[in-house]
Amino acid sequence: MIRFDQVTKTFEHEGTSFKAVDQVDLDIQKGEIFGVIGFSGAGKSTLVRLVNQLERPTSGQVKIDGQDMSRVSASELRNIRRDIGMIFQHFNLLETKTVYHNIAFPLTLAGTPKREVKKRVEEILEFVGLTDRANHYPDQLSGGQKQRVGIARALATSPSILLCDEATSALDPETTKSILKLLKKVRDEYNITVLIITHEMNVIKEICDRVAVMENGKVVEHGSIFDLFSQPKHPTTQKFVQTVMNDEIPESILKEVEARHIYRVTFRDGSASQPVLSNVAKHFNVEVNVLYGQITELQQTPFGNLIVELQGEDEEINNALQHLEKQVIIQEVKADGR
Ligand SMILES: Nc1ncnc2c1ncn2[C@@H]1O[C@H](COP(=O)(O)OP(=O)(O)OP(=O)(O)O)[C@@H](O)[C@H]1O
Fold first, then answer.
1. In what order do the strands lie in the sheet with 16-28?
2. Would residue 95 count as lying in a domain?
3. Which residue has its alpha carbon closest to ligand 1 atom 28?
4. In the listed set 221, 243, 265, which residue is the last one of a domain according to the structure?
5. What's the pTM value of the predicted model, to 2 decimals?
6. How far apart are CA 159 and CA 294, in angstroms?
7. Which atom of ligand 1 is nearest to the CA of 12?
8. Which molecular function terms from Gene Ontology are attached (predicted)?
């Protein structure tokens, strides 16, 4: 659906050039919620702006449904842009227009007949749960309601792609959750491809199917959120995962890893809801001692990371490990904590 092929964007500033996006390759599938995470300045906004050609690549290609965006004519680009909705951190609503007219605006701009505009705006107002606010002005709304208007406006022209640029960064955690739930509903009911950029791993954890981690313009790691959360490889990914999953092993445990049998057990695909560890203790002659960790939820599926110690004869421990490997990811903890 959206393909980045060796995309580089270089900015020239006061005689020096700077690669904001550096040889990015990504393939985003139709109907998926794809997250791009990175610290400030990583190049996320530039990457997302390359999709609707608010920025043009210095080299490489951005393709939508196989069409190279830099080769389309100005009028084709206008049509393609109508098929790409965008929402922003600070909502970017027209303050002098009501909720109704903010949402109607892109339709009017596209020359949609008035009766159709009314039908579509009413439909979309109901979808975002703001029917009773149609005649309010943006300054009469909460942040969450403003973002709902932003989403409604972006959806008005029935796009097939929705770009979200830090769409929940100005919202409190509860409101963030409700907006993310709405974005999930957008994908589920309209099968829209959603590209989310954020610096918050919570957002990724809540709704994304896959994620790319950016640093200094490069994608340093990407994959399904289960893979990234269970086995983050790049140090930056590990830092982001640690912001929502406390998987950093305390010094007191690390000091003893050489002398003890300590393992990181990662539960995925629902195995966290099974009594995996107690079963192993029951069926093998080992004691399982949970030292540290937590279970949380990834896409409504229990997901967790526990640091456990196995005590017993070496042979029994090996048998228990072989059994555990069939159900969970199990890694011996090294002295460096990984
Ligand atoms: N038009 C521009 N001219 C010059 N440099 C730019 C321009 N746009 C972005 N940059 C630079 O490119 C880098 C990446 O910026 P970008 O906004 O894409 O990062 P980001 O990951 O979205 O960061 P943030 O979360 O802070 O917005 C930054 O160092 C920024 O200063």
1. 16-28, 2-13, 59-64, 67-68
2. yes
3. 41
4. 243
5. 0.87
6. 39
7. 4
8. ATP binding; ATP hydrolysis activity
E runs forming strands in 232-316: 262-267, 287-298, 301-311
Q: How far is CA 68 from CA 7, 61, 163, 195, in A?
A: 12, 6, 18, 18
Determine which residue's CA is closest to atom 26 belonging to ligand 1.
40
Number of folded domains that form the chain = 2
Whether complex ipTM tops 0.90: yes
* Contact in structure between 193 and 32 (CB atoms under 8 Å): yes
Is 338 part of a structural domain of the chain?
A: no
Whether 194 and 282 map to the same domain: the answer is: no
Do 302 and 272 contact (CB within 8 A), yes or no? yes
Mutate which of 44, 51, 201, 240 for ligand 1 pocket (most atoms within 8 A of beta carbon):
44
Is residue 118, in this structure, part of any structural domain at all?
A: yes
Residuewise pLDDT in 10s, the chain (338 residues): 999 999 999 999 888 999 999 999 999 999 999 999 999 999 999 999 999 999 999 999 999 999 999 888 888 888 888 899 999 999 999 999 999 999 999 999 989 999 999 999 999 999 999 999 999 999 999 999 999 999 999 999 999 999 999 999 999 999 999 999 999 999 999 999 999 999 999 999 999 999 999 999 999 999 999 889 888 899 999 999 888 877 677 787 777 777 788 898 887 666 665 688 888 888 889 998 888 887 787 877 778 788 888 999 999 999 999 998 888 888 888 777 66
Listed residues 243, 267, 284: the one ending a domain: 243
